[in-house]
Amino acid sequence: MITSISLNPSIDRTLTVENFATGGLNRVLARNDVAAGKGINVALTVSALGLDSECVGLMYRDSGSLFEKRLMLNSTAYDFVWCEGSARTNIKVFDRAAGVVTELNESGSPLDESLLKDIVDLVVRHAENSDYLVLSGSLPPACPADFYRTLIQAVDGMGCRCILDADGERLKFGLEAAPYMIKPNHFELEMMAGKQLTTLKEIRNAAYRYLDMGVKVIAVSLGADGALITNGGETLFAPRLNIEVKSTVGAGDSMVAGLAAGFMADRALEDSFRMGVACATARCMTEGNRIMDRTVYKALLDMVSIERI
After folding, report:
1. pLDDT for residue 247
2. 10 Å Cβ neighbour count for 132?
């Protein structure tokens, strides 16, 4: 079982306009609301791979039905600590004429401290039957920046490996609990290293630092340049496949899901990496906020090229 933690779910609202006018009147041609958030995306992608997946965390009563419906339609189990209010809304304004998207993301509602213990108890309860626990994305306002560390420490010794996909202080504190894997992107790794990383060897060497902190695997998404992964014993690089990119939303979440699926099946690092890259690529080939197509994913597996660094 792969359990994904969702603490700051979002409704991704896409508004389609023609010739977006800053400061002027814009008429909306189409609107689409999708239940999302990194934790939701990871869980749905694992389910799309045909594996047992569940999403647990925090959910808001006023908008919960939208999330429940999407998870149920994709055969994904869920269990939430419920609170009053609505999930944050991330607005994406798509200018059809220019082919560009303008994003307006909300931070979310402040989290009542009384809910924190309930969330820890929920995560510990589900970790008992989980092989991998994925902690990803932002935290609600007023939630302690070290909360991912708290959760990783709470499941320590339960045989559940933790994957952390976060940035800033959330990553800094989370590293203190030595998660099994982290997945910074190129920019985040540069921020952690305090310098620019322009070659693959520089990226690899910067990642090595976190192996000394107890992390077993570091995967680095490099955007249009591909991805890199290392466990200290071997470092692998996968260049970007030549595809038509329809959307990059959730590509990193799909990579995490593919990697976790490979690890759970005890695949070699190279095979797990190939699964992660194929998942991310399949997601990029999918329009809007839809989950990647499993048939496309399978076709891409043999197309992923792996180089040793």
Report:
1. 73
2. 23
* Per-residue pLDDT reduced to its tens digit, 177-211: 999 999 999 998 998 888 898 899 999 999 998 99
**Dihedral, 294, 296, 298, 302 alpha carbons, nearest 10:** -160
pLDDT tens for each residue of 203-241:
999 999 899 889 999 999 998 889 999 999 999 999 988
Which residue do the tokens 């779910």 mark? 9
Please, what are the domains in the chain? Answer: 1-179 (3.40.1190.20), 182-309 (3.40.1190.20)
Q: How confident is the model at residue 48 (pLDDT cuts 50, 70, 90)?
A: very high
**Count of Cβ atoms closer than 10 Å to residue 305 Cβ:** 13
pTM of the model: 0.91
Q: Is the dihedral of CA 209, 257, 147, 125 positive or negative?
A: negative
